[in-house]
Design a protein that fits this description.
Elements lengths: L1 H44 L20 H7 L6 H32 L5 H11 L4 H14 L6 H24 L4 H9 L4 H12 L1 H17 L2 H6 L8 H7 L8 H21 L1 H10 L4
Helix pairs in contact: 1-12, 2-12, 3-6, 3-9, 3-11, 4-6, 6-9, 7-8, 9-12, 9-13, 11-12
Length: 288
């Protein structure tokens, strides 16, 4: 009895040390990951002259929001207009593909057609297509459709580009929902569309929130598609304006860092608001 208790204590101590080592490694990785962001934040809060010796030099240390105001009201490329333009693109480019992707994913899951499996394989293959491969044909197509240099064209591009992964993501999430509920609704006379809108979508809210958060972040951070689509200076998005804030002879790192923090703050806010559903949605479709 005494030997068994000693082994149990030794095993418990070994597990505690393993947990401590795991936590220490996790904290170290987290600190290394945070250092660049800390540098950007410190640069954004301090005047240019205090950054000449590096943001880590704390003598002297003057903190203010002057760089944020300068970036927001920049004389040539104000970030306030860029944030507004980015929201004008990001919101419809998130809602539209998530809605279409949900319908397509559910249709692929419940369809009895023989084309279902080949279609799903095509969707998966589309995920491997790089942006650079479609740049030239996409530009020509937008010119022909008179959608170049317009928010509608960029929304259409992001909708088409986001649909494959959203279809696959929501297809897998819908597969985790109990099919018995749909069968019971069918026995009560509900149509397939009624089941989708009134039963499946409410149950899939965590998955929809996760897909929306990821799609919004992708669209918000996009630079490539915006670069080949939007040219009018007044319609430039937030990510396009940050590089243009560089001066010709002097780079004001404080203003650039403040603009970066402001642009990053929007997707962080979205993740914060959707955090609970986002985690459930990301984990849920793996637990079938």
């Amino acid at each position: 009895m005494g030997d068994r208790e000693d082994r149990r204590r030794a095993g418990g101590a070994r597990w505690r040390w393993r947990d401590v080592a795991r936590d220490v490694v996790a904290w170290l990785v987290g600190l290394i990951w945070i250092v660049p962001f800390l540098g950007i934040l410190m640069s954004a809060l301090r005047p240019q002259e205090e950054l000449l010796d590096g943001w880590w030099s704390l003598h002297p240390l003057t903190l203010s929001f002057r760089n944020f105001a300068a970036a927001w009201n920049h004389p040539s490329v104000p970030l306030s207009s860029g944030i507004r333009n980015s929201l004008t693109v990001a919101i419809p480019a998130t809602v539209l593909p998530v809605l279409l992707g949900a319908m397509a994913g559910y249709g692929l899951l419940r369809s009895r057609s023989r084309a279902r499996s080949p279609l799903f394989v095509v969707v998966v293959f589309l995920l491997a297509v790089p942006q650079q491969m479609v740049a030239i044909p996409l530009f020509k197509l937008l010119v022909q459709l008179h959608l170049i240099n317009s928010f509608a064209g960029l929304v259409a591009v992001h909708t088409a580009w986001g649909l494959p992964w959203i279809v696959m993501f929501l297809h897998n999430y819908f597969a985790t929902l109990p099919a018995e509920l749909e069968e019971a609704a069918q026995l009560d006379g509900a149509s397939r569309m009624t089941i989708f809108w009134r039963l499946v979508l409410p149950l899939a809210l965590p998955g929809l929130a996760a897909a929306a958060a990821l799609q919004f972040t992708w669209v918000w951070n996009d630079f490539f598609f915006a670069l080949i689509t939007i040219y009018d200076p007044s319609e430039l998005l937030a990510t396009q304006r940050i590089p243009l804030m560089r001066g010709q002879y002097l780079v004001d790192w404080g203003v650039l860092s403040a603009a970066s923090v402001l642009v990053m703050a929007v997707p962080v806010l979205v993740y914060t608001l959707l955090q609970r559903n986002y985690v459930r949605g990301m984990v849920g479709w793996t637990l079938r």
